[in-house]
Amino acid sequence: MTRVHVTLIASLLLVCPLLANAQEGPGCGPANVKFDISTTKKQPLAPALQAGKAFVYFLQDDLKYNSSPRPTTRFGLDGAWVGATHANSYFYVAVDPGEHQVCANWQSDTTGLSWIGPKRSTAAAEFTAEAGKSYYFRAEDIARRNEPNGPIISEPEVRLAAMEPAEAQVLVNSFSLSSSHPKK
After folding, report:
1. Is the dihedral of CA 35, 165, 123, 89 positive or negative?
2. Burial grade of 99 (CB within 10 A; 0-12, 13-18, 19 or more)
3. For the chain, what are the domain ranges?
4. Do 139 and 76 touch, CB atoms closer than 8 A?
5. Which fold does the domain 23-182 belong to in CATH?
């Protein structure tokens, strides 16, 4: 083996473990972190804003996801996972004012549609938080069919977008509250 080959192999051995734990997109956390999730239909009282903080709500909307199993979606904030949802649920976190990156990512490649090929399982956005305000982001899971039980006609994907507070409140009132923690 030449010196170049040895250097190349050594570099690959060092980089491959890092790639296995690499982030999926801006704002996301490490790829190897998975969540256990529970949900409740009981709506909690509105959270009290903490002095000098803003709230970020993360909603998973599966209305346009016509397959099963439905994906579990992890949400990242500034490079760390802050929680996860499953099937029309939400959670919220307090954040400091300033610029932030958010990410939605399906935690598993198994979405019930892996046989149809490519999918877009990560989406990202940016926003600037102001103290005392709330921000809402909807991860919309999509897999379309022309008819019930018909073939899937679109690549599965997740879209992440900011929502108007009034529309977000409509969904929050009909969705389950999600509680999650990293799997051990």
Report:
1. positive
2. exposed
3. 23-182
4. no
5. Immunoglobulin-like (2.60.40)
The alpha carbon of residue 124 and the mean position of all alpha carbons in its chain are separated, in whole angstroms, by 9
Q: Is residue 169 classed exposed, middle or buried when 0-12, 13-18 and 19+ CB atoms within 10 A define those classes?
A: middle
Contact between 36 and 171 (Cβ < 8 Å) = no
pTM of the model: 0.79
DSSP letters spanning the chain: --HHHHHHHHHHHHHHHHHHT-BSSTT--BTT--EEEEEESSPPPPPPPPTT-EEEEEEEEEEEE-SSSPPEEEEEETTEEEEEEESSEEEEEEE-SEEEEEEEEES-S-SS-GGG---B-EEEEEEEE-TT-EEEEEEEEEE-BSSTTS-B-S--EEEEEE--HHHHHHHHHHSEEEEEEE--
Q: Which residue has 């499953």 as its token pair?
A: 86
Q: Looking at residue 81, what is its pLDDT?
A: 97
122-129: strand order across its sheet: 80-86, 72-77, 98-106, 122-129
Q: What is the pLDDT of residues 75-91, one digit of tens each?
A: 999 999 999 999 899 99
The string of pLDDT tens digits covering residues 107-143 is: 875 554 444 444 678 999 999 999 999 999 999 988 7
